[in-house]
Design a protein that fits this description.
This is ABC transporter permease. Keywords: Membrane, Transmembrane, Transmembrane helix. The chain is mainly α. The protein is 77% helix and 0% strand. It has a domain of 42 residues. Helix 1 packs antiparallel against helix 4, helix 2 runs antiparallel to helix 3 and helix 2 packs across helix 4. The model has no long low-confidence stretch (mean pLDDT 88).
Length: 118
């Protein structure tokens, strides 16, 4: 029964992911357009070229906003990956990077203070 539910959920998720391929490609193109506009804006020397790169960047931002449904497709792809891992009875583990640094002075101070007060 569990495999049947995973198969049905995977089928629905696959259909959603396939339906969102167009917006995902559009969002990727928009991100590329924004990146190129920012890159060439920084390298441009004349005011005219800076204005043209700003206009191209605004077009990219508007295109990215119109492709926001692509986020649903990206989530569907992630869910499809998790369902695939569950189908193969593998563990799904997400490791988030630690936000604290080892060289953080406040953390080092707290650790040293606790060592001194013992």
């Amino acid at each position: 029964m569990k495999k049947l539910l995973l198969l049905i959920a995977g089928g629905i998720t696959f259909i959603i992911a396939i339906a969102m391929v167009g917006p995902i490609i559009g969002l990727a193109f928009s991100a590329l357009l924004i990146f190129l506009a920012m890159h060439f804006y920084v390298k441009s020397k004349t005011t005219f070229s800076k204005v043209m790169w700003i206009i191209l960047g605004i077009i990219g931002v508007l295109s990215a906003i119109s492709n926001i449904p692509a986020v649903i497709g990206i989530v569907a792809i992630v869910v499809l990956y998790v369902l695939y891992k569950k189908w193969k009875d593998e563990d799904v583990k997400v490791d988030f990077p630690k936000t604290t640094k080892k060289d953080d002075p406040f953390t080092n101070f707290e650790r040293e203070w606790s060592n001194l007060t013992k």
